[in-house]
Amino acid sequence: MDLDLNVRKEGDHAVLAVGGEIDVYTAPKLREKLIELVSDGEYHLVVDLEKVDFLDSTGLGVLVGGLKRVRNHDGSLRLVCTQEKILKIFRITGLTKVFPIHSSVAEAISDTAE
Amino acid sequence: MTSSEPAPPVVHLAFPPEPALLGTVRLVVGIVARKAGVDEEGVEDLKVAVSETCAVAVGDLTWAGLSTPIELDLVEEPDRFGVEVRDRAPAGEHAPNLPQDGEVDDRQFGLALVGALVDGLHSTALEGGGHSMRFWLRRSREGPPPLP
Known about the structure:
The complex is a heterodimer. Chain A is α/β, with parallel strands linked by helices. Chain A contains four helices and five strands; from the N terminus they run ββαβαβαβα. Chain A has helices spanning 27-39, 57-71, 84-92, 105-113; strands at 3-10, 13-22, 44-55, 76-80, 101-102. Chain B is globular. Chains A and B meet through helix 2 and helix 3 of A and helix 1, helix 2 and helix 3 of B.
């Protein structure tokens, strides 16, 4: 089991595409990547979860940590997700009120620009 | 077997408390639950609930310095699919709730998730030390849950 993390730049945004399963075993890798991006001065992040097969509470915690880090720099962290099984986890935990969740990367980026 | 006796487990797993094994555990839960006729949404709910419960056990055992196996029973009953996770972490030995910088309490978050996803959740202390977490999912989730 591994986690695929790919970063690309789109204008002012860093888009982090995540693939695989985010759990207590793999979440540290995601945490390290988010910390690295913020350390590199990337304060507007889009995390694309479309290829995530599984997300647990540790993964949620890491995303919340990432959000707090970018907010410390007046930045933003937006999520891209259309998978019902993943969206359900955000809804149950009330995090749909914390994270802007979009149906595409393009939508996430254009929303930040408004 | 009389009707008052619990159904025997369909699958029994015992595995060391290693986070790397949780993906395999989820895979087994998914296969067994699907075969038992649980719908896809229920399968995903069970995978999250089992993974969260096992992750708590992994954390508690690791914190206690123990490598005793975690035991998982998957039980197929006529109207529901049951899960029991047992660990031998001493009572009161919980991994510290020390969220990393800016994060949330994974343990509380995880257990809240389990409670929201399954139809029944019972936690008991085991004789001789350890914990048992039992929960189940009704096969048909239309209407209110049956009385315990």
